[in-house]
Design a protein that fits this description.
Length: 66
């Protein structure tokens, strides 16, 4: 596992989550607005990141480690 120093002007992807699917006509999320769907994805990504001890400590793992 590598340890990287990220500068103030650099960004790193530390987690991800998919948005719910179902916005089609008569879909399960048809009446749900885009901000609510995006908020759900952000909350899930933050929760996943918080659960990963290596990321909490500031270490980035290779893709093969996941």
């Amino acid at each position: 596992m590598a340890n990287f120093n990220i500068g103030a002007r650099e960004a790193a992807i530390v987690s991800f989550a998919r948005t719910p699917i179902g916005k089609a006509y008569r879909g399960a999320f048809n009446d749900t607005g885009a901000p609510a769907l995006g908020g759900a994805a952000i909350a899930a990504a933050a929760q996943t990141r918080a659960a990963n001890k290596a990321l909490r400590e500031g270490n980035l793992a290779d893709a093969a480690d996941f």
